């Protein structure tokens, strides 16, 4: 058990368990009295919080959706900033970033189920690759306003970030970025299937 005293391991565990906090589920139950895992896409993310809460309390839905988005993004950011403050290596920081996203996608508090990971992914990427993340957010924002299909705008933003990282930082090891992108796409497989079938719903 000596490995548990390794600072890197401690930060990896912290990232995973903090990343796994299901803020959307908690906020929706606490303030709207609904279980987001029983409605909509059954995801714990901001989009499903907005969709499910809107059915019973439209006035509250947007507030809870925004709160979920911010908290899901911040949980990765906070652990990363602490890791930076403790002087962790860049490689260790990338490990923290990957595990924060993995924690959200496969939450230890929900029997390893979880959300789609977009907000947490963008949060950690904003710390690690700020310029690429701003490009991704711009792509996401444009498509969110025009196409109005959450999965399309989210995944397009993720792809834009990945491509931008190769152009802006060709020298870096891209394995952690690719791993996060693969995680996000994996969690969106049901959405991708619905897109192919023409069944994916627009955000209204």
UniProtKB/TrEMBL annotation:
<feature type="transmembrane region" description="Helical">
    <location>
        <begin position="92"/>
        <end position="112"/>
    </location>
</feature>
<keyword id="KW-1133">Transmembrane helix</keyword>
<dbReference type="Pfam" id="PF02660">
    <property type="entry name" value="G3P_acyltransf"/>
</dbReference>
<feature type="transmembrane region" description="Helical">
    <location>
        <begin position="64"/>
        <end position="86"/>
    </location>
</feature>
<keyword id="KW-0472">Membrane</keyword>
<keyword id="KW-0812">Transmembrane</keyword>
<keyword id="KW-0444">Lipid biosynthesis</keyword>
<keyword id="KW-0808">Transferase</keyword>
<keyword id="KW-0594">Phospholipid biosynthesis</keyword>
<keyword id="KW-0012">Acyltransferase</keyword>
<protein>
    <recommendedName>
        <fullName>Glycerol-3-phosphate acyltransferase</fullName>
        <ecNumber>2.3.1.275</ecNumber>
    </recommendedName>
</protein>
<keyword id="KW-1208">Phospholipid metabolism</keyword>
<comment type="similarity">
    <text>Belongs to the PlsY family.</text>
</comment>
<feature type="transmembrane region" description="Helical">
    <location>
        <begin position="12"/>
        <end position="32"/>
    </location>
</feature>
<comment type="function">
    <text>Catalyzes the transfer of an acyl group from acyl-phosphate (acyl-PO(4)) to glycerol-3-phosphate (G3P) to form lysophosphatidic acid (LPA). This enzyme utilizes acyl-phosphate as fatty acyl donor, but not acyl-CoA or acyl-ACP.</text>
</comment>
<feature type="transmembrane region" description="Helical">
    <location>
        <begin position="155"/>
        <end position="186"/>
    </location>
</feature>
<feature type="transmembrane region" description="Helical">
    <location>
        <begin position="124"/>
        <end position="143"/>
    </location>
</feature>
<dbReference type="GO" id="GO:0004366">
    <property type="term" value="F:glycerol-3-phosphate O-acyltransferase activity"/>
</dbReference>
<comment type="subunit">
    <text>Probably interacts with PlsX.</text>
</comment>
<comment type="pathway">
    <text>Lipid metabolism; phospholipid metabolism.</text>
</comment>
<dbReference type="InterPro" id="IPR003811">
    <property type="entry name" value="G3P_acylTferase_PlsY"/>
</dbReference>
<keyword id="KW-0443">Lipid metabolism</keyword>
<keyword id="KW-1003">Cell membrane</keyword>
């Amino acid at each position: 058990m000596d490995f548990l005293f390794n600072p890197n391991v401690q930060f990896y565990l912290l990232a995973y368990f903090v990343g796994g906090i299901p803020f959307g589920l908690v906020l929706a139950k606490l303030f709207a009295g609904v279980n987001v895992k029983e409605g909509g896409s059954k995801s714990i993310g901001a989009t499903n919080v907005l969709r499910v809460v809107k059915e019973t309390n439209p006035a509250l839905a947007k507030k809870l959706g925004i709160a979920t988005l911010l908290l899901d993004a911040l949980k990765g950011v906070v652990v990363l900033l602490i890791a930076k403050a403790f002087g962790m290596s860049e490689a260790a920081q990338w490990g923290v970033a990957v595990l924060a996203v993995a924690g959200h996608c496969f939450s230890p508090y929900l029997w390893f189920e979880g959300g789609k990971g977009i907000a947490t992914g963008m949060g950690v990427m904003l710390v690690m690759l700020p310029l690429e993340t701003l490009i991704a957010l711009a792509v996401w924002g444009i498509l969110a306003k025009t196409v109005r299909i959450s999965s399309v705008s989210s995944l397009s933003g993720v792809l834009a970030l990945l491509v931008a990282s190769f152009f802006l930082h060709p020298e870096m090891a891209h394995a952690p970025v690719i791993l996060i992108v693969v995680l996000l796409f994996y969690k969106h497989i049901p959405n991708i299937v619905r897109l192919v079938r023409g069944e994916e719903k627009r955000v209204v």
